Structure formats: C-alpha cells, structure tokens
C-alpha cells in the first residue's frame, strides 16, 4: 500500500492569493497522450456523495468522512486539504486560559544564572535582591493579581519573601507562574502555596532557562504538598517539564480544576481515582511513559480535549467512548495496534490525531462521525500483521573482507562468506552458508549497450552495468549486491537485473557504503543501491520519477503521490469488478523552460502525471483526479480546453483542478493565453526528455596525439574542463546541443585526421557513443595524420546524431563523415608536424617582431606592448572590446590561457596588433582611445609618453647622421 499515505505539508496549509492578468483568453488544458477514452464532467451530481466509506485497506492521511458539496467554491483551505488548522496540535501544552509557553517570556531567560551579592535584606517589598537581580523592582513581576517569577532564574525563592512582606496583597493573588529549576527556592514557594486561596491559574514549569551549552534546565518538582487541595478556586494548573512519577493525590480534590497540563514528566500510570476530576475540560499527558489508561477516564464527562501523544500506549479502554463532549483526541507517537469500536459514540469528536502508530485498519465506526478529521500518517495501513520476533540468534562471527583492485576480475568465496569491495565503490556481501564449497566468481563493469539497456521516458541510467559471473551459479542464501550511484533530487533509485531478454526491477534498499571501502574517492562512503539476489546476472542502477502504487478492489481506494501530496486519485466504490494494480508517477516540470519553448511568458503548467494500471481495461466508474493548480494560478473561472479528449470539464477551486477519467495515460494541466497549443504541448513534452549537452575535444599537452573526447550535460562542463586544464588543452567546448537519455551519436575525425585504434566501437575514423547524463561518456584515442598528409594538420572533430553510417558517397566522405542533417557540432583540432626522429615539433609561444604605428601617430614595439600588458588586469576584456575584438575571439583567448592572466593579456594585445597592418594609419591613436574608453587614462598617458620619447630619439638620430633638415620636416609632419 505504498503511496497511500497523504502528507500534511506546509504548502497545503497555506493558501497563496495571487493575481494573474489575463491576455486574450485563458485555458486550463488536461493533456492525455493516447487521445482516446471517455471523460465525465466534474460537475456530475452522481459523483458527489455525503459520506466516504473507509475500507479496511484504505489509507488516508486526513480522512474526510463527510465531504462538502464540491460545487461550493467557498470551502475553506483546511477543508479542501483535509488539514488541521488548530494551533493546539503544535503546542505541547495547550491552555485555553493562559499561554504558559510564551516565547517572549522564555527569551528573557536565555542567559545563565545571575551573580548575587548577599547583603542585609531590606524590609521594603520593592527590593527583591536576592534572589532577583538588583535592578528588578516589584512592579516588574507583580501587577494587580498576577505574579510572574519564572522570567528570572531562581525567582521562585522570592515568593516566601513577598509573602512575608505584603501578605495582604498576596492573599488576593489569582495568577502565579514559577520556575522549578531551583530546588531550595521551589521548596520554599510550595510552603506558601496553600495560603494563596484565591489562585485561579498556577504554572510550576521546567525548561524556562538554559545552561551555558544552550540546553534547557529540567524542572525539579517531584510532588505537591497535600495542602494544595485547599486551592478551591484553581481552574488552570500547568506542571509540565518536571519529574513527577505519579499523579499528586491533592489534585483529585480540586473542585473546579478544568485544565491540567502534565506534559513531559515521568508518569507511567494514572490512578483509578482520576474519574473524580469531573470538572476537567482539557487534559494533557503529552511526552510521558504511560503504557495504559484507566477505565475510569471515561467518567470525565466534561472533557473536551485529551492529549496522550508521545507515550507507550498499546491499547485504549472501551470506556473512552463515554466521553461525549470530547472534540479533540491526540494519540500520535504511541504503539496502538487498533482503536476500540466504542469510539463511534464520540459524536462531538472533530479531530483525531493518530499518526505514527502501528494501526493497520481504521474501524468502520468512525463513518458515523460526519465532521471528523483524521491524521493517520506513518501507519502501516492495509499491510499484514508484523510477524513475531525471531528467537535470538547466536552472535555472528565477523565476515572476512576482500578489497579488489581494477586488475583483479576474479575472486574466491568459501562457505564462511565474504564481504567483497569492488573498485569504484560497489560491494558484494556473501553471507556464511551461501555456498557449500569454495567457488571462484568473476565481475566486470561493461559499457552500456543501447540495444541491451532500454530506458523508459524520463528514466536516467546512474551506473554502468555490473556483470557478475558465472550466471548459472545458485546461492543457498541471498547475496546482497550494492551499486554506487549519484542520487537525483525528487526521484527514486531502483536496481534492475537482466534475465537475458529484458530488464526487471528489484526491491531496492538505499544506504551508505562501508567505512572500510578504501576504493572510493576521498575516503567518503558512497551512496549504495542494494538488492538481494539468489543468482548472478547483470545489474544496474536507474533513477526514475517516484512510483506510487496500490491494489484497487471493488471497495474503492485513494492513491496519493509521495512526491506531491496534492496529486490524488479517488477511486469510487464499484469502479472495478476485480482487483487491479494502479501506478502513479508525477514528473515536475520547469515553468521557465515551458515559457521559453511555447513563447508565452504567462504560461503555467502543473506537474506531468503518468497513470497506468494492470489490467488496462477501462474503469466501471469515472475516477476523480485532483491536481494542484500551477503556481501563480488561482482563477476558478478559467475556461476549459479539450485537445485529444472529446469533452474535458474542469472543476477549479482556488487550489486544485479536478476532472474525471475512465482510462489511464499521461495527463498535463496547462494555463496559457494561446488558443491552439496542441503542437506546443507535443514540442514541450519532447524537449522535457532531452538534455542540453556540450562536446569537449582536448589534447594531452605532453603528447598531442592523445585526444580526449567527451559529452556532458552543460551544467557539468565548466568544472570538468577546469579539472583537465593541467594536463590537457584544446578548443572551447561546443555550442549547446540536445540529446535524449540513451541516444546514440558518433564523432568523426576529419580533414586529414585519423584514429589509431582497433576498438570495436571505432569504424573508419568514427567513434561511437551512447549518451547517459549520469555517466562520463568519455573516450581517449590516439590520432595520426591521414594517409598522404605531411606536415602539420589542421583538422576537426564533428559530432553526428545516430548510428555510424556504413556506406557514404565519396564526396561526402571528403567533406564530412556523416550526413549534414544529423550534424551536431564541429571542433577544430591541430596536429603538429613530425621531425626526423618521428617526434612532434612543439611550438613555443612566441610574439613576432612588431613595429606598430606610422610616422604621424608614432610607433610601438613588442617590448612596449609587453610593458603595457603587465599593468592590465581583469579589465582586459573591456579593453579588448574597445579595441574591436569580437566576443567569440575573447572567449577563445580566455579558454586558451585560462590559467595564465599575463599570457591572456599578451595574446589579446598581439592579436589586435597583427590586424593593424591592414587597418590603415592611426593604430597608436586607436589604442590610446580604447584605453580612455576603458577608464585606463593612465595607460593612455603612458602610451603617449612612449611615442613622444620615440619621436625625440628619432630626431636625434637624424641630426647625428647630418639629416637635420629631413628630420625637421619629418618632425613637422609629425606635429
């Protein structure tokens, strides 16, 4: 019955009111992939009932036994969701009379104990030091009939002092709060209590203060004096967070006590005389050690709220059905296995909280309570009873461990068992007795084969297939196979095994790997997907949208998505004649991506629903589907849209869209301003299955003939290139391309390049790949000049979609090794020339001699540019743009010199300088203008100084050789 539990998330408990402006017309579209089947209007009165049956196997979180009219758009948020908005659930000690858990009070006590300076105590009642700090006056703690002494540590000791100073005013006291962390002060205060005959509210609590480590100080109250029974006006009593092990007998004699809070004590049993407390309306034993409740509890006829959550209760007395005025019953976090049938008599009950128990069935008697809300999360509803515990087994002997290296592909396992750690993080656990004799086993990590590894839509391969041999061996005990994976958010991970024909899912358990697995990088335990098998085969880990399933019977059922509890399937009674299995998957969709694809900035979409069943026949009754409205949509008047179904009528509340179907497929809720969206939906759905990828081609710096080819999702490219930068270099990654999970593509080495390899996945200089988003998709090969090519080769690597073509026309082969319609990207690749010793001639970075400029604007040499480059930092890109370099050129320069800022600046300057030969006169002036536009006036001034010095030196040289006249004329021209 996995997936039948409905959560109570915060998102469901908050109604977000948003205003959405409509342009043109607005639509809510229910998208069905198969395009056929009958759809029943949500407004069908036959679908509305006043009562919801609760079969034994039905598993709700919040069960609405009586539902409201679905056409009533004014239904409240909590009613729509079945949630509980009463804040008492989250308060450990709820009091209708006084909030004894006031955070504003507790915050005043966060400091540690005060330093007391003991002097002669003044007889004036306005002086309370000690025990309170000297700055505290009487008016700060005593107002009219209320005395607050729990905001200062040790404040209870002030009560005897006040009683001795102002007894008349103390006799009129009605509200008193004390902290119970100071034993001497508490004892003195308890002696005064019987004299305060007018008290109506009393709180003696622990956890009011914190120590230096931030831990709350426990209360030290263990009992109450018998004289407390004289407080005949006491209505409210809070003794929470103390050390009470039994109910004080004096409490049984308080005639008008209506609220009793004994939260977080050490009560293990309640006395039978508790039935004498007939005036109680609110009673809380939250967080104690109660194992049972006395039958006399049923005598509390006025009781309205009872909280016994977080105890050890295994059953409830039948007499609990006598609490006719009870409206709230809190039973969470106990050990209850069943509820008494007498609870059907609690006609006033509105809220029943029973989550985190051991309940497997909800009694039918609760059908009689029309306004009841039930929270049944974390109960094994519908599951068979837990078998009795096995007898204790003798202490297990430690299983030997075996750590294998990459070159060790076989190992031996004896009858004593073995824990085998494979390279990369995988583990194999052979229990003792799984084999009769010592057996040699083999393992191998295989490359994913597209024909063998078959994935459904939106599934992601998380590991290479692990082959364990021999396939025919059978184990006497199950062997645990664990495969490492990287988990995807909001998806589930399953292991699959191959039986020679198809892959099937295995029951999968997720856990962390062993600390002793030293083969995992950085010494951190890997995340493992584990399964138990009785024979060897192929195994792999797959990520998929969370699958929720249930068994549907003629009694009906409710299926709730674990990934989004707002998605629900309501199966009415008699919707099927026989049992069938129902499966629900919810795929979350990026709204921004949909808006970009369909060109509608106002478009909104819900999660994508995939519904399936076995057998696949239509339902006898329409099935109600509830989908949360897309974020930003709260318009119940939106129009409906039908695309491939004959009629789809939506009932839209402020939170949900509801429709009825009789067959299962893919369904999608759209809100858009476009009228014709069927083609857009198909386009968007196809794009959702694709990944944005980039291709990388890098050469090893020490050996340019060794080439790394890789394809990765775009969000992983930058970190990957950075990690390879120390040993590899090459062009920038390719532009973005789209690939499906498991799609095949190939890389062709072209324009004078060929591959030196005998690998079966390489044919005619073409490498075959299969893309998997969680794998490396990497191959390293050696390349060489193609036949007939000499000297350096300026080739390229092109990537193509699909399988490697077997036959191509000769003219196509010369151009590219693939069809243009299947082309994805091309990256340049240069192979240096070979010398006489058959070694590559490696070129050093050299900057050619430069004499930049002209007689009118002056000249700059390469030495001048080198000097300028030392003064340019991270503003090099701005300078490059102002010099006229394109963004693509700057990106290539940055990629080529990504680890060396100095080389990057030099490359940028010299690349600009080499272009000036064909740019006409005025190069130096253009350089100075670019510096000024880049806010580098200092460099512009330095360039001007360099040019002037050059002119002066030029004139002096002319005079020395007797060419003053020419030099003067030249100088005039320069002026």
Describe the fold and architecture.
The protein is an alpha+beta fold. Helix content is 16%, strand content 26%. The chain has a 12-stranded mixed beta sheet with strand order 3-14-13-12-11-10-9-8-7-6-5-4, with no helix packed on it. Strands 16, 19, 20, 21, 23, 24 and 27 form a 7-stranded antiparallel beta sheet that branches. Strands 2, 29, 30, 34, 36 and 37 form a 6-stranded antiparallel beta sheet that branches. β29 and β30 form a beta hairpin. The protein is extended and about 125 Å long. It starts with 26 loop residues before the first strand and ends with a helix. The model is unreliable at 1-124, 635-648, 811-815, 844-848 and 965-975 (pLDDT under 50).
Please write out the topology.
Elements: E1 27-30, E2 39-40, E3 62-64, H1 77-81, H2 103-106, E4 142-143, E5 146-148, H3 158-165, H4 167-171, E6 175-179, H5 183-192, E7 201-205, E8 236-238, E9 259-261, E10 282-284, E11 305-307, E12 328-330, E13 351-353, E14 373-375, E15 401-403, E16 410-413, E17 418-421, E18 427-430, E19 439-445, E20 460-461, E21 466-469, E22 474-484, E23 491-498, E24 503-506, E25 509-512, E26 527-535, E27 538-545, E28 547-552, E29 557-560, E30 568-571, E31 580-587, H6 591-598, E32 604-605, E33 608-614, E34 623-628, E35 639-641, E36 651-652, E37 656-661, E38 666-667, E39 669-672, H7 678-688, E40 690-700, E41 703-713, H8 714-724, E42 728-729, E43 737-740, E44 744-750, E45 753-756, E46 762-763, E47 766-770, E48 778-785, E49 793-801, H9 810-815, E50 823-831, E51 851-854, E52 858-861, H10 862-869, H11 876-882, H12 887-896, H13 901-915, H14 923-933, H15 937-960, H16 964-974
């Amino acid at each position: 019955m996995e997936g039948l539990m409905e959560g109570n998330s915060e998102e469901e408990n908050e109604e977000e009111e948003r205003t959405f402006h409509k342009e043109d017309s607005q639509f809510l579209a229910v998208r069905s992939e198969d395009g056929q089947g009958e759809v029943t209007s949500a407004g069908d009165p036959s679908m509305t009932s006043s009562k919801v049956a609760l079969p034994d196997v039905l598993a709700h979180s919040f069960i609405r036994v009586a539902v409201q009219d679905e056409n009533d758009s004014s239904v409240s948020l909590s009613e729509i969701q079945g949630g509980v908005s009463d804040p008492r659930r989250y308060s450990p000690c709820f009091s209708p009379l006084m909030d004894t858990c006031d955070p504003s009070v507790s915050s005043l006590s966060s400091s540690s104990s005060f330093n007391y300076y003991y002097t002669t105590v003044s007889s004036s009642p306005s002086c309370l030091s000690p025990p309170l700090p000297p700055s505290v006056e009487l008016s700060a703690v005593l107002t009219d009939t209320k005395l607050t002494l729990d905001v200062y540590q040790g404040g209870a000791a002030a009560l005897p002092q006040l009683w001795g100073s102002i007894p008349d005013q103390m006799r009129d006291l009605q509200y008193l709060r004390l902290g119970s962390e100071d034993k001497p002060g508490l004892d003195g205060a308890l002696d005064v209590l019987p004299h305060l005959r007018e008290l109506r509210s009393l709180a003696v609590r622990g956890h009011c203060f914190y120590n230096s480590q931030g831990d709350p100080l426990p209360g030290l109250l263990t009992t109450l004096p018998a004289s407390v029974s004289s407080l005949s006006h006491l209505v409210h009593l809070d003794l929470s967070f103390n050390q009470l092990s039994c109910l004080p007998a004096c409490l049984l004699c308080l005639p008008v006590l209506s609220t009793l809070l004994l939260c977080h004590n050490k009560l293990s049993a309640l006395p039978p005389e508790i039935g004498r407390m007939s005036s109680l309306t609110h009673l809380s034993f939250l967080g104690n050690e109660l194992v049972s409740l006395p039958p006399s509890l049923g005598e509390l006829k006025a009781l309205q709220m009872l909280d016994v959550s977080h105890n050890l209760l295994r059953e409830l007395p039948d007499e609990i059905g006598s609490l006719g005025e009870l409206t709230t019953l809190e039973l969470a976090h106990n050990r209850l296995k069943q509820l008494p049938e007498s609870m059907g008599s609690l006609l006033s009950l509105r809220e029943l909280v029973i989550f985190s128990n051991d309940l497997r069935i909800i009694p039918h008697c609760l059908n009689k309570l029309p306004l009841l809300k039930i929270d049944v999360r974390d109960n094994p509803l519908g599951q068979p009873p837990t078998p009795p515990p096995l007898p204790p087994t003798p202490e297990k002997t430690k299983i030997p461990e075996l750590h294998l290296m990459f070159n060790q592909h076989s190992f031996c396992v004896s009858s004593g068992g073995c824990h085998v750690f494979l390279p990369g993080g995988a583990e194999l656990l052979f229990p003792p007795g799984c084999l009769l004799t010592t057996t040699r086993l083999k393992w191998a990590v295989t490359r994913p084969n597209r024909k063998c590894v078959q994935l459904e839509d939106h599934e992601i391969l998380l590991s290479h297939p692990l082959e364990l041999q021999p396939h025919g061996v059978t184990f006497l005990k199950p062997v645990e196979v664990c495969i490492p994976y990287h988990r995807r958010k909001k998806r589930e991970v399953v292991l699959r095994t191959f039986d020679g024909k198809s892959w099937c899912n295995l029951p999968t358990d997720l856990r962390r790997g062993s600390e002793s697995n030293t083969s995992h990088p950085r010494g951190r335990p890997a995340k493992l997907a584990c399964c138990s098998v009785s024979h060897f085969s192929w195994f792999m880990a797959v990520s998929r949208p969370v699958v929720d399933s249930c068994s549907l019977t003629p009694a009906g059922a409710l299926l709730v998505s674990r990934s989004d509890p707002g998605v629900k399937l309501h199966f009415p009674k008699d919707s099927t004649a026989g049992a069938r299995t129902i499966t629900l998957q919810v795929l979350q969709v990026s709204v921004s991506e949909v808006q970009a694809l369909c060109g509608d900035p106002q478009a909104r979409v819900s999660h994508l629903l995939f519904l399936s069943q076995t057998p696949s026949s239509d339902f006898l009754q329409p099935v109600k589907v509830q989908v949360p409205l897309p974020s930003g949509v709260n318009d119940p008047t939106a129009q409906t849209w039908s695309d491939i179904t004959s009629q789809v009528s939506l009932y839209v509340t402020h939170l949900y869209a509801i429709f009825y179907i009789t067959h299962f497929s893919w369904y999608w809720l759209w809100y858009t301003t476009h009228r014709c969206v069927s083609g857009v939906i198909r386009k968007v759905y196809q794009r959702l299955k694709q990944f944005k990828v980039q291709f990388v081609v890098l050469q090893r710096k020490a050996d340019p003939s060794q080439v790394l080819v890789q394809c990765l999702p775009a969000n992983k490219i930058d970190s990957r290139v950075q990690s390879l930068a120390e040993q590899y270099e090459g062009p920038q990654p390719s532009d973005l391309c789209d690939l499906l999970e498991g799609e095949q593509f190939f890389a062709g080495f072209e324009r004078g390049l060929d591959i030196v390899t005998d690998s079966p996945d390489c044919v005619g200089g073409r490498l075959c790949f299969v893309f998997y988003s969680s794998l490396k998709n990497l191959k390293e090969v050696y390349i060489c000049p193609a036949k007939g090519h000499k000297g350096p080769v300026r080739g390229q690597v092109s990537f193509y979609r699909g399988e490697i073509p077997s036959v191509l026309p000769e003219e196509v082969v010369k151009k590219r090794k693939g069809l243009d319609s299947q082309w994805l990207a091309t990256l340049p690749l240069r192979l240096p020339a070979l010398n006489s010793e058959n070694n590559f001639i490696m070129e050093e970075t050299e900057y050619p001699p430069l004499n930049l400029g002209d007689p009118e604007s002056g000249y700059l040499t390469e030495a001048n540019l080198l000097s300028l480059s030392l003064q340019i930092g991270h503003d090099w890109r701005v300078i490059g743009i102002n010099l006229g370099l394109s963004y693509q050129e700057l990106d290539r320069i940055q990629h080529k010199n990504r680890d060396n800022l100095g080389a990057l600046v030099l490359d940028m300057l010299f690349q600009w300088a080499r272009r000036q030969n064909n740019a006409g006169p005025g190069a130096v002036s253009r350089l100075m203008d670019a510096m000024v536009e880049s806010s580098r006036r200092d460099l512009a001034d330095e360039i001007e100084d360099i040019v002037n010095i050059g002119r002066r030196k030029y004139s002096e040289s002319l005079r020395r050789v007797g060419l003053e006249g020419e030099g003067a004329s030249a100088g005039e021209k320069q002026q």
